[in-house]
Amino acid sequence: MTEHILFLTGSLAEKQLRSILEKMQPEFTYTVHQLGLKVSALMTTDMIARRLTDTFGATKIILPGRCRGDIIALSEKLGIPVERGTEEVKDLPLFFGKKIQIVNLDNYSVKIFAEITDAPNLTVLEILNRAAYYRRNGADVIDLGCLPSTPFPHMEDAISALKQAGFLVSLDSLDTVDLLRGGKAGADYLLSLHESTMWIADEVNATPIIIPETHTDLDSLDRAIKIMQAKNRPFVVDPILDPIHFGFTASIVRYHEVRKNHPDVEMMMGVGNITELTHADTAGMNAILMGMCSELNINHILATEVSNHAARAIKEADLARRIMFAAKEHDTLPKHINSGLMALHEPAAFPYSLDEIQELAAQIKDPSYRIQISENAVHIFNRDGFHSATDPFELFPKLGVENDGGHAFYLGVELARAEIAQKLGKRFNQDQSLDWGCAVDSTESEIDLHTFKPAGTTLKK
């Protein structure tokens, strides 16, 4: 039986929706129904329940992506499956054309060790608070970093408190005294042992992270692996990732060589030498590094958030590992799975051409301003005129809001957002904050611009 889909829309978008569906030549049949309002973004499920008296024989209803309300309750009332479509009608072909639609990012294989690099200088309570923050951002193990020549008298108390709070704990030091103390205090992992300090593994129950005896000595790493395999003890191998221009490419080769020689051993990659020591946005770095981990079956990383530019590194690594797991599981490229790592740009920033925006503007019969962007400019329009610029300051004298502080404030904020989006290549939706992905904490509060939104201003199509 051929699926018949009912598309609900507003009058401003109806013509374009019909055109797009016609060009798609879909395998399903469809009905487009204009619900008696101009702007489809103002549609709500309560409004649909009141106004929709005929479902036109549909087997499914697609709502505008910005339609607010309870679609489950609406579906139950109408007796038909109801879905939200795309926020922009231009994106409908992608919505229906995806061969796979990966939306479940619950699974991953890489454990994130989040290092508290200055643990000896923090109180136990401060360590617990930092650990809680890291866990909220995706950390699986809290790593206590010891500092050279810095006493850590409360190490045991810190490990005990973390364990009581339900954390897995690792201790990070090259000092054998620290490692023994940490292991005996109940740490789950010890970073790092090498061939000469493997005896520590016999004294404690912690899982050792093994590194080469000297920096690039893979022969010593091979011998340490054999020692642990003979003991039939779990262990993790870290060939050590080096910073760029200080052995980075060669260290990647080492990881590949260790994996080739030891296809079944657990491995770790310390990603901080790249994210911390490269002044570039870390989201892309984490994507590449997690992709390498996925290809080489590296199931542990050590991550840090020391530098200001790396302040979201653990959150980014968490999302990146989930994206890579999903891509690998579905045997696909890591594209169109989740946009959270695309903080600065987006795949389709400008869904409408200038001609299409001007066509929409010609339909406007009210004084409310709409704002849209195209590849070359920011556009603001109402029934009285259409104005374009790359600098919002050029637009202000044309808007007639000099004596309306609230309106001027609202339009200033929206035009500033539009300018940022237009310059960076981000998607702009009037009355919505720009999407910065996981570069921004979801807990950060935002001013509700609707508080300042004066009469005579409306959502764009």
Can you characterise this structure?
The structure is a single chain. With 461 residues, the chain is an alpha/beta fold. It has three domains: 4-97, Rossmann fold, CATH 3.40.50.11600; 111-329, Alpha-Beta Barrel (TIM Barrel); 354-451, no CATH class. Helix content is 35%, strand content 15%. It has helices spanning 11-24, 45-51, 71-78, 92-97, 124-136, 155-164, 176-184, 200-203, 218-231, 248-261, 272-275, 282-296, 313-329, 354-361, 405-424; strands spanning 4-9, 29-34, 60-63, 82-84, 111-116, 141-145, 168-172, 189-193, 207-210, 236-237, 266-270, 300-303, 370-373, 378-382, 385-389. The chain has an eight-stranded parallel beta barrel, surrounded by five helices. A four-stranded parallel beta sheet has the order 2-1-3-4. A three-stranded antiparallel beta sheet has the order 13-14-15. α5 (124-136) crosses α6 (155-164) and α12 (282-296) packs across α13. The protein is elongated and about 80 Å long. Mean pLDDT is 90; it is low at 443-461.
Topology of helices and strands:
Layout: E1 4-9, H1 11-24, E2 29-34, H2 45-51, E3 60-63, H3 71-78, E4 82-84, H4 92-97, E5 111-116, H5 124-136, E6 141-145, H6 155-164, E7 168-172, H7 176-184, E8 189-193, H8 200-203, E9 207-210, H9 218-231, E10 236-237, H10 248-261, E11 266-270, H11 272-275, H12 282-296, E12 300-303, H13 313-329, H14 354-361, E13 370-373, E14 378-382, E15 385-389, H15 405-424
Parallel strand pairs: 1-2, 1-3, 3-4, 5-6, 5-12, 6-7, 7-8, 8-9, 9-10, 10-11, 11-12
Antiparallel strand pairs: 13-14, 14-15
